């Protein structure tokens, strides 16, 4: 796999060819989602669908579609029995819209990043981002983009949230989700621990999108919304929190901003509370981490992916004790921080990360 980096025991030329053709795979996946191919097969029910049934439904040439379905089968996304095609388990779990772990919005959002990646050479020359939104973009278009972004991030957060809650055996009291986005991370804790309530903090332009997603759950009566800019030194909060979540926040900013964000977060932590930092880190899945770093370079003002060691050192400046970097089974990892070792000792660190 390209994301694992080069293995010197394998053919180097083949590895380079695989790098050069990696977009073939992503385009094959994007096209299937845009055609609603997996959903269309699911609509035929448990029996699956034949090529003759699928072609008119998808508006595709039957001969061409047969070749494309063979590709999706080789990728493990479809199965075939005689002339019938069906969705594999991975497709049912992640690529059907009714699945709790649906990833389609996240996947298609990544397709939209292509225009930014096409500016890599120009951005390297300029020393920063060169592809910006037009100055006359309407508020309606911005809201559409925010909605697409928050749905994509909701997909991702749901994929990681259960791995995060598994470190806790018990939790009660107030939760603060900083830069909450869809609120999915906080909602996972609300579901796992009934004696909790959550404050979802984000900029005022984003919270209406958050509210729509939370309103569709059974947890809206345990949620408070707090508009604030996390880059400001004061978030205008009036209480301390048992759990403060910073999920995919650190990589959105550079050193100076993160120093301020971590300082402010620490100031709102209760004496026996926990800070949870979930993010990409250079030590874990380094190829994906460095790709994510360049993605931030191309898409943000000054976002970057940090080492876990840097984040831990910053937390310790605020008299916090920390866990080591804790890799998840995915491409991200966790760091926990608290005012005392006894608070960290209540966490369950024996997780299966293989």
Automatic annotation (TrEMBL):
Endpoints of the signal sequence: none
Limits of the O-methyltransferase dimerisation domain: 18-87
Pfam families linked: Dimerisation, Methyltransf_2
InterPro entries according to UniProt: COMT-like, COMT_C, COMT_dimerisation, SAM-dependent_MTases_sf, WH-like_DNA-bd_sf, WH_DNA-bd_sf
Domain O-methyltransferase C-terminal: 144-304
Entry keyword set: Methyltransferase, S-adenosyl-L-methionine, Transferase
GO biological process: methylation
GO molecular function, one term: O-methyltransferase activity
Domain of life of the organism encoding this protein: Bacteria
Protein's recorded name: Methyltransferase domain-containing protein
């Amino acid at each position: 796999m390209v994301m694992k980096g080069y293995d010197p025991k394998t053919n180097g030329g083949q590895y380079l060819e695989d790098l050069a053709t990696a977009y073939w795979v992503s385009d094959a996946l994007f096209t299937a989602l845009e055609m609603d191919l997996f959903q269309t097969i699911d609509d035929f029910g448990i029996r699956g669908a034949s090529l003759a049934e699928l072609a008119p439904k998808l508006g595709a040439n039957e001969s061409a579609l047969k070749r494309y379905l063979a590709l999706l089968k080789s990728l493990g996304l479809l199965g075939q029995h005689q002339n019938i095609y069906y969705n594999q388990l991975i497709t049912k779990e992640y690529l059907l819209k009714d699945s709790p772990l649906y990833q389609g919005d996240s996947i298609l959002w990544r397709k939209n990043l292509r225009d930014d990646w096409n500016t890599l050479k120009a951005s390297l020359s300029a020393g920063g981002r060169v592809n910006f939104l037009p100055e006359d973009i309407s508020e309606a278009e911005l809201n559409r983009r925010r909605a697409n972004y928050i749905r994509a991030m909701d997909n991702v957060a749901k994929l990681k949230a259960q791995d995060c809650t598994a470190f806790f055996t018990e939790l009660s009291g107030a939760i603060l989700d900083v830069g909450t986005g869809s609120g999915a991370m906080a909602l996972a804790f609300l579901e796992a621990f009934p004696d909790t309530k959550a404050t979802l903090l984000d900029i005022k332009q984003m919270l209406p999108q958050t509210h729509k997603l939370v309103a569709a759950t059974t947890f809206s009566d345990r949620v408070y919304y707090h508009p604030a800019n996390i880059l400001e030194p004061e978030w205008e909060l009036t209480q301390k929190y048992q759990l403060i979540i910073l999920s995919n926040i650190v990589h959105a900013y550079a050193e100076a901003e993160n120093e301020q964000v971590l300082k402010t977060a620490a100031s709102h932590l209760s004496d026996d509370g926990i800070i949870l930092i979930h993010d990409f880190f250079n030590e874990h899945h380094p190829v994906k981490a460095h790709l994510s770093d360049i993605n931030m370079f191309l898409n943000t003002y000054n976002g970057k992916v940090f080492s876990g060691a840097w984040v831990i050192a910053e937390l310790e400046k605020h008299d916090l004790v920390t866990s080591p970097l804790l890799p998840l089974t995915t491409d991200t990892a966790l760091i926990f921080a608290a005012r005392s070792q006894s608070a960290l000792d209540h966490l369950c660190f024996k997780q299966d990360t293989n």
